[in-house]
Amino acid sequence: MNNSRGFASDNNSGIHPDVLQAITGANRGHCRGYGDDPYTAEALKTFKAVFGEDVVVFFVCTGTGANVLGLRAAAQSYHAILCAQSSHLHTDECGAPENYAGCKVITLPSDDGKIAPRQIEPLLESRGDEHHSQPKFISISQPTEFGTLYTVEEITNLADFAHANDLMLHMDGARLSNAAVSLGCSLRAVSGDAGVDILSFGGTKNGMMIGEAVVFFDPEVANHFKYIRKQGMHLVSKMRFLSAQFTAYFKNDLWLHNARHANRMAALLAQELENVPQCRITQKVHTNAVFVAMPSEIVAELQNRCFFSVYDSTNTVTRLMTSFDTTEDDIHGFISDLQKILQISGKRDEKEHKGKHYEHGRE
Predict the structure, then answer these.
(1) Helices 17-26 and 240-250, interaxial angle, to 10°?
(2) What is the reported pLDDT for 358?
């Protein structure tokens, strides 16, 4: 079994030792199930300290669950969710928003994964017309699926626009920790204080084993969510093992240290790739994602040595993700493999070119 660290996804990383220790610590004796336990009470108290005393928080297992169930809390079947074309809601959730929340997903084009009020305004012209789905949510990812960032001001502008037009702002924050580190602000500043109504907050990609949270900044929106979570099959019986992870995640700013390291590793990887003429970075590197175009003929061989994902096969744009446990040796090893394969590929191309030239000369 190959246990080497790759760059396919921060989902592929292991569990931070402090989080693993917290799980072990919760594995003592019996506790009441379904969240009625001291570990969950402590974790909820921690969330209030981080995001504000008025927040209402529910723990779920997956990012898709957090996104879809969070939206379902305020959705009617005739509502529409407005998001970027690259949004995880649209590309990677297998129609779950439509199937479970009952909402139509309307996508907006974006080269960097970000959307702005000017793109949304035309979609509001159909409001009140029973022939059309009614816009209810603006959903953004922070950071975006391209690793780019909304500034706090951009989020505030979107929130102000949403609230002025009777819309709600949802944030997919699966990697919000990485965004906050890059922006140099608190988790609350980049979410609730900026006007976000519903936040899907992730921990799995940044050192936790499993666990996401739905954070409601307006308690009234959360009134019926406990039933929605149960119907949505995310009410975990042994909740203490999810909850204990979040307490460890926030203790001593573990979330910050993990995200800072992952971001720093991405910056180093980007710096090294910029020295490879055959490669071109296609998006600004703000967090722990590096998007790079490379020669198509080397991708498969390079993936065999260190697995990563091809994001755009037409233009051979690959996505390289760093994690809390990525090391500098991982990066230098990857760059070394890349350069060796490029060298071999170049010699192969040169040999083929000479062969064709020879055949042409004989003719």
Answers:
(1) 140
(2) 47
Indicate the domain borders of the chain.
16-253, 255-351
Tokens (6 digits) for 278: 């055959």
- At residue 65's C-alpha, the angle toward residues 62 and 71, to 5°, is 145
Structure-token pair, residue 279: 């490669």
Please check whether the domain covering 16-253 is classified as CATH 3.40.640.10. Answer: yes
CA dist., res. 65 & res. 101, Å (int): 11
CB atoms < 10 A from the CB of 51, how many? 23
- CA pair distance 286, 279, nearest whole angstrom: 18
Give CA angle at 186 (319, 51), nearest 5°: 110
Outline where the chain has alpha helix (H). Answer: 17-26, 38-51, 63-72, 88-91, 96, 117-120, 152-164, 176-183, 225-231, 240-250, 254-273, 296-305, 328-362
Report the distance separating Cα 33 and Cα 297, nearest Å: 53
**pLDDT tens by residue, 118-165:** 999 999 999 999 999 999 999 999 999 999 999 999 999 999 999 999
**Residues in a beta bridge with 178:** none
Where are any strands of DSSP class E within 109-147?
A: 134-141
Q: Is 299 exposed, middle or buried (0-12, 13-18, 19+ CB in 10 A)?
A: middle
Q: Give the tokens for residue 302.
A: 């390079």
| Helix (H) or strand (E) run with residue 106 in it | strand 104-108
How far is CA 78 from its chain centroid? 27
Give dist(CA 198, CA 222) in Å, integer: 9
65-6-246-267 Cα dihedral, nearest 10 degrees: -110
The fold adopted by the segment(s) 255-351 is: Aspartate Aminotransferase, domain 1 (3.90.1150)
Q: How many residues does the chain have?
A: 363
pTM of this prediction? Answer: 0.94
